[in-house]
Design a protein that fits this description.
nine-stranded mixed β-sheet; Rossmann fold; 3 domains; alpha+beta; six-stranded mixed β-sheet; 28% strand; 577 residues; BirA Bifunctional Protein, domain 2
Length: 577
């Protein structure tokens, strides 16, 4: 049965809401897809939920086809499940916590790694029961400090999360590839243009994590792509191509100490000393399991802690409060290592160039000019204590790590999916082991695979809209065909219902605007809600046994007259069904 506008709830708005910052948020509110209940809390109205439902069905079909089995886990998680993984500590204030009437502590699950691991450990004892992949479509909760951009960053959201379980790394690779390929099919079917980028690796190593990004100017995430199109990565993962460096450059002058009071930032120091940030050395002290490490990058760059961890071979922690008791934090220079044997140094390539350098003086409220690596550091320490590596965040204009002359260019993106190799992090923490062929206990190797369902809908709008409203991909549009009669009465009404019956029999869902509104109001609303095809039925057209056919994606283009007996075929062609 077709849907009549008067029998559903589509509260369209003429003006943009004042607090909506991005196109998807504005248009989802204006087109009556969602309504805000509170900060980061949204009700999906009929149009919005239809789009979500179609998205969910695509995801469900592809997950089932990839061999995953659907479950549904509780959103309420006993706090004891975090005892071994410590993720309640990692999540901090982002975790919704509550206490029931019996004094038991619980949390609203932000993800379900602990719950799925507990479930599997209860039933899986032997390697013969593996591999397995379980998924769910469930509401998640995160107490975002600043919910924004509508459903793109809310406190309650619907997510598909899947978890694979294997006995071997090779098995994990197979499971991971199956999910990677399924994600490509999902986003292709949802009509998204996306980029697959490298993200932070899991504990097993290698290329263990990928994000699926929809590129748009309003995206919250930063990615870098080679202008040759053969490399892309999240800014937290992005490698930088080879850069020349040297420790043998001659001094640019005698080491000169400068009093720099009240200079708490690189910018303030540079302004006071009349030195550009790219000629300052930013020196940070990190704690590791192998002792403290000095990380040095150029003043206009930032340390990438993931890269620093890889360079050190140990986890790194920046704890200025703890280090302040031993070191002049904020005024440390690399040459502190010459006086403190416990300090090793990791230097980014760009911080080891033949140029003038200024740095901290290792004394509160003081810096030095004419710092020289060889004179002030290398001549005083064993070379084994210093290492040069790529340890900074990549930036627009950096060389591509492929080494083919490509240049990295910065883009913004919306993360709609993430596939990740967890390894044995959760199975080790929670004691999930199985008996292998030799009857020995082995930890199960896990992968996790998430999709933000509301993010798919919002991302489709971000890349599919114009000044008049939404331009939906046909696969997730609330309705395939929107019938707009000039007047919903008499012969026009009969034609609407007859056409709708034929279209729905051919696999299309139909919305009929039966409101007693002026044609201009109906046309504006049709453009706003953005169904792929609009059929306008009026007396002039019917006199020619025709209706006006228009694709929403054609914008201001003139509608074409289509004979009544050709309408279904024309719609099928336009929708590619």
């Amino acid at each position: 049965m077709p849907t009549l506008w008067s029998q559903t709830l589509i509260p369209t708005l003429r003006q943009d809401p004042a607090d909506a910052e991005v196109p998807s948020h504005r248009l989802m509110l204006r087109a009556g897809l969602i309504r805000q209940l509170g900060s980061g809390l949204y009700t999906y109205l009929p149009l919005g939920w239809r789009a979500m439902h179609k998205t969910i069905e695509i995801v469900r079909e592809e997950m089932n086809a990839a061999g995953a089995a659907e479950v549904l886990m509780p959103a309420l998680e006993p706090i004891e499940l975090f005892a071994d993984t410590k993720r309640d500590v990692e999540y901090g204030e982002n975790l919704f916590r509550l206490t029931d009437r019996h004094g038991r502590h619980a949390a609203l699950a932000p993800t379900h790694e602990e719950i799925i691991t507990e479930l599997m450990a209860a039933y899986v004892e032997s390697y013969r029961q593996l591999p397995l992949n379980l998924y769910q479509i469930q509401t998640k909760y995160r107490d975002e400090f600043r919910p924004r951009f509508g459903v793109l960053r809310s406190r309650e959201f619907i997510m598909k999360d899947a978890y694979s379980f294997d006995l071997t790394v090779e098995g994990l690779d197979t499971s991971y590839r199956a999910m990677y390929d399924a994600y490509c099919r999902i986003f292709d079917r949802c009509g998204l243009t996306y980029e697959i980028v490298e993200a932070e690796s899991g504990p097993i190593g290698g290329s263990a994590s990928h994000e699926f990004m929809v590129l748009c100017n309003t995206g919250e995430d930063t990615i870098l792509k080679s202008d040759k199109g053969n490399y892309a990565a999240n800014i937290d993962k992005c490698a930088i191509g080879p850069r020349k460096w040297t420790f043998d450059a001659p001094p640019t002058g005698d080491l000169e100490k400068v009093h720099t009071p009240d200079c708490a930032s690189i910018e303030a120091v540079g302004k006071f000393m009349k030195v550009k940030p790219k000629h300052l050395l930013k020196t940070l002290i990190y704690s590791t399991d192998n002792g403290p490490v000095i990380a040095v990058v150029r003043g206009d760059h930032d340390v990438n802690e993931g890269k620093l961890k890889a360079a050190c071979g140990f986890a790194v922690t920046l704890d200025d409060e703890a280090c302040a008791n031993r070191y002049p934090i904020g005024f440390v220079g690399p040459h502190l290592a010459a006086a403190r044997d416990e300090l090793n140094i990791v230097v980014d390539c760009d911080a080891a160039q033949d140029q003038f350098w200024a740095s901290g003086a290792n004394e509160i409220d003081h810096h030095v000019k004419h710092f020289n690596w060889k004179r002030d550091v290398l001549d005083h320490i064993d070379e084994s204590r210093i290492k040069v590596a790529d340890i900074r965040k990549a930036a627009d204009g950096d060389p591509s790590p492929i080494g083919d002359g490509g240049v990295l260019r910065e883009h913004r993106g919306i993360e709609v999916g993430h596939v990740f190799k967890l390894g044995t992090k959760y199975s080790d923490a929670m004691g999930f082991t199985v008996l292998d062929e030799d009857q020995k206990r082995r930890s199960v190797i896990m992968g996790c695979y998430g999709i933000g369902l509301g993010r798919i809908v919002a991302a489709a709008i971000e890349i599919g809209h114009d000044a008049d409203g939404i331009i939906w991909p046909a696969s997730i549009a609330p309705y395939s065909v929107h019938i707009v009669p000039i007047k919903y009465e008499g012969e026009l009404c009969k034609t609407c219902l007859s056409l709708a019956e034929q279209l729905e029999a051919a696999g299309m869902d139909v919305l009929i605007d039966d409101r007693p509104e002026r044609p201009g109001v109906k046309f504006n609303d049709a453009d706003l809600i953005g169904c792929p095809i609009r059929l306008t039925i009026g007396e002039k057209g019917l006199a020619q046994n025709s209706v006006e056919f228009k694709r929403r994606a054609d914008g201001k283009a003139k509608a074409e007259l289509v004979k009544l007996d050709q309408v279904v075929r024309r719609c099928q062609e336009a929708l590619d069904i």
